[in-house]
């Protein structure tokens, strides 16, 4: 990736490090226009440099939010929707630790977040390093267990090591600091996982050279590749494809996390332009193929897939299976309930390795360097595919089934909205280009039964499963959609227990109401508690209860919109009212819409019950 963001004549030979950092971030993601976080005294010097003229010319703005955990979730949503790096800024200790749960979710779900933390000054750190000095305990920094010893100024950085791929503490304003910045950005983008940059409070004002801003960049590492190993593995994979009699492709999470949907679809079109032979499947977390294609069979979710036919066509009627972008996660496989024992050739393609013929070929070496990227591999597969060695596309006999949703709710309920009815509603309500967010709730297990229209993007956090993420995540999605100049519907489904975790971020849609031209429709499923947990154990126990009497439809007014300038709120009490809502003609894309759905405490989809049964086995 080569980006010269500023003409050389318009920038001095030296600028403050804080200003330099924001310009380097703009190069790492030219689409980025919003940076998220909560200001704190250790990060104020850095934040000031966002207002430098050179940075303002990049149209980068700081978006302040209610707390750091929410900010991390917002950054996650922004990264996924914009397809690249997102940035979170917090302060020493109290801020970074509040955010670390959200950063752990970024790591678990492969989301490239740069977490910048303003930390104690170099003078404070130097003072603490000298054992001759009397002990000084600075605010936000926990004391040493031995009160006669200085506190450890790196104590929080040490906590971040297992939830990030890289951590750097800047200590100077020389070339080493610029190397550290580039290393952090490089590691984040190559691994699609979060990294940390710790910046002492006094350092952003010191000047650094701008020479690097005009050099070629390759943050993703696409230009450096071991062509010999790449060609060898490419030929091996293509030979497997040429010799297959009933091949299938299962597209998984990492294809979308590395923004390779278009590349994979290009490869698929090369193989099967008639869309009649090659069977296509999506995993529950990797809904990144066009599900309207004639040869897209359905969502494969282990033993609880869209239908028994989906399972049969993948597990029993496939002789060669390619899993592109494989993500090894319990909630992506229905508790590892897949059975690939009858598949002759099983090929697993991850961004770090390729498993073929029972042997792991490491793409990422033990020392951390990559032989090539997943994008390099797809490009090579596309360029080297030989139609003359692959004659299967003339035999339209391999695709004999395609999943279409059936009505789940047999009858309407007058007392509440059934989970099955909501499933039917979402299947009928989704439109091409929508972005659908589902929180960790009883309903999320029905996602495999949804058929996504073309261009529809599905976002969930079903693996790390920190409830309450989807509301702030939708804030980040909205900023990304607006920054890209898109006009897409954003739909959020969230349980009441989840919503109570992060509800204050509703205020962002009011605070930035004039700026955000697209706002979400948020459906709060009010079933008075933790329904997944009730299904697991203790359906009537108080530990699964929450405060039952929140006035959901009044919350946005309380958060700053009493005149409903930016929002509409309403309650749907039963299946009949949900039907009426679906056929309405009102377009609320420019207004936040909060819809309370009255649901039953113990009503769940059969998918959830079956998933939990698999977890017990």
From TrEMBL:
GO terms for molecular function: metal ion binding; pyruvate decarboxylase activity; thiamine pyrophosphate binding. Binds 1 Mg(2+) per subunit. The keyword Coiled coil does not apply. Mg(2+) binds at residues 496, 527, 529. Keywords: Decarboxylase, Lyase, Magnesium, Metal-binding, Pyruvate, Thiamine pyrophosphate. GO terms for biological process: aromatic amino acid family catabolic process to alcohol via Ehrlich pathway. It holds the Pfam family TPP_enzyme_C. One of its GO terms (cellular component) is cytosol. SUPFAM superfamilies: DHS-like NAD/FAD-binding domain, Thiamin diphosphate-binding fold (THDP-binding). Its cofactor is thiamine diphosphate; Mg(2+). Residues 451-560 form the Thiamine pyrophosphate enzyme TPP-binding domain. Residues 31-135 form the Thiamine pyrophosphate enzyme N-terminal TPP-binding domain. InterPro entries: DHS-like_NAD/FAD-binding_dom (IPR029035), PDC/IPDC-like (IPR012110), THDP-binding (IPR029061), Thiamin_PyroP_enz_TPP-bd_dom (IPR012001), TPP_enzyme_TPP-bd (IPR011766), TPP_PDC_IPDC (IPR047214), TPP_PYR_PDC_IPDC-like (IPR047213). Belongs to the TPP enzyme family. This is Pyruvate decarboxylase. It comes from Suhomyces tanzawaensis NRRL Y-17324. The lineage of its organism: Eukaryota, Fungi, Dikarya, Ascomycota, Saccharomycotina.
């Amino acid at each position: 990736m080569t980006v010269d963001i500023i003409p050389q004549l318009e920038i001095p030979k030296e600028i403050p490090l804080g200003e330099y950092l924001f310009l380097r971030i703009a190069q790492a993601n030219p689409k980025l226009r919003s940076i998220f976080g909560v200001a704190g005294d250790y990060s104020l010097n850095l934040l000031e440099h966002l207002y430098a003229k050179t940075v303002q010319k990049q149209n980068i703005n700081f978006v302040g939010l209610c707390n750091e955990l929410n900010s991390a979730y917002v950054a996650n949503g922004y990264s996924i929707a914009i397809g690249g790096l997102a940035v979170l800024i917090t302060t020493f200790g109290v801020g970074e630790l509040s955010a670390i749960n959200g950063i752990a979710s970024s790591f678990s779900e492969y989301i490239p977040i740069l977490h910048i933390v303003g930390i104690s000054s170099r003078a404070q750190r130097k003072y603490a390093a000298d054992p001759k000095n009397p002990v000084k305990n600075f605010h936000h920094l926990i004391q040493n267990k031995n009160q006669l010893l200085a506190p450890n100024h790196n104590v929080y950085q040490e906590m971040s090591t297992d939830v990030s791929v890289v951590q750097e503490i800047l200590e100077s304003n020389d070339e080493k600091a610029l190397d550290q910045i580039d290393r952090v950005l490089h590691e984040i983008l190559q691994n699609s996982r979060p990294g940390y940059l710790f910046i002492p409070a006094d350092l952003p004002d010191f000047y650094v050279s701008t020479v690097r801003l005009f050099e070629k960049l390759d943050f993703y590492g696409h230009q450096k590749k071991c062509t010999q190993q790449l060609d060898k593995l490419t030929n091996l994979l293509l030979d497997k494809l040429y010799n297959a009699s009933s091949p299938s492709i299962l597209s998984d999470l990492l294809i979308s996390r590395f923004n390779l949907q278009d590349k994979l679809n290009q490869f698929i079109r090369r193989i099967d332009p008639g869309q009649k032979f090659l069977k296509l499947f999506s995993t529950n977390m990797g809904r990144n193929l066009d599900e309207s294609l004639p040869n897209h069979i359905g969502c494969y979710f282990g033993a609880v897939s869209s239908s028994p036919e989906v399972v049969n066509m993948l597990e029993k009627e496939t002789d060669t299976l390619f899993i592109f972008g494989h993500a090894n996660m319990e909630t992506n496989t229905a508790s590892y309930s897949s059975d690939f024992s009858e598949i002759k050739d099983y090929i697993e393609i991850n961004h770090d390795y390729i498993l073929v013929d029972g042997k792991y070929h490491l793409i990422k070496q033990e020392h951390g360097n990559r032989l090539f990227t997943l994008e390099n591999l797809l490009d090579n597969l596309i360029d080297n595919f030989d139609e003359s060695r692959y004659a299967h596309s003339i035999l339209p006999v391999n695709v004999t089934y395609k999943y279409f949703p059936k009505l789940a709710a047999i009858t309407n309920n007058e007392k509440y909205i059934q989970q099955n009815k909501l499933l039917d509603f979402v299947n009928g309500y989704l439109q091409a280009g929508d972005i659908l967010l589902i929180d960790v709730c009883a309903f999320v297990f029905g996602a495999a039964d949804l058929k996504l229209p073309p261009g529809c993007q599905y976002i969930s956090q079903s693996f790390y499963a920190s409830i309450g993420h989807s509301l702030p995540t939708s804030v980040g999605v909205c900023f990304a959609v607006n920054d890209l100049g898109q006009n897409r519907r954003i739909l959020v489904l969230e349980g009441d227990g989840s919503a109570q975790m992060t509800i204050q971020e509703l205020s962002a849609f009011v605070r930035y109401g004039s700026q955000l031209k697209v706002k979400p429709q948020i459906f709060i499923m009010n079933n008075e508690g933790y329904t997944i947990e009730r299904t697991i154990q203790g359906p009537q126990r108080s530990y699964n209860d929450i405060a039952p009497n929140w006035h959901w439809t009044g919350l946005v007014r309380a958060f700053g919109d009493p005149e409903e300038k930016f929002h509409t709120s309403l309650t749907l009490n039963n299946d009949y009212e949900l039907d009426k809502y679906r056929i309405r003609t009102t377009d609320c894309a420019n207004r936040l819409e909060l819809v309370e759905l009255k649901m039953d405490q113990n009503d769940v989809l059969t998918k959830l019950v079956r998933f939990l049964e698999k977890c017990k086995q």
